[in-house]
Design a protein that fits this description.
5-stranded antiparallel β-sheet, alpha+beta, elongated, 1 helix
Amino acid sequence: MKRNAIKIVFITFILAVLVITAMGTIDYRKTMRNFEKPIFAQVVLGADDGGSGNYVGLGYNIDIRGELDVDYGYVIHSAQFNIFGIKVRYIERN
């Protein structure tokens, strides 16, 4: 009985880590490769321009700077991706 409980806790922990990693990876790809706003991270400190701000996810955050364009909608000019407060990548759009 005790052995089964340990297995269940271990499998639940591994599944939680996999889900959190998948969420961070999806937000990373959307923001850093496609210059789009993240899906899973929530804006904490946002500006009035429609999307600039600090987006916080589980264990990561994304600092986005951009502007609302009449023709293209929200355009990201720069973004910085941090994991546990450590800068992983910074990009700027040319």
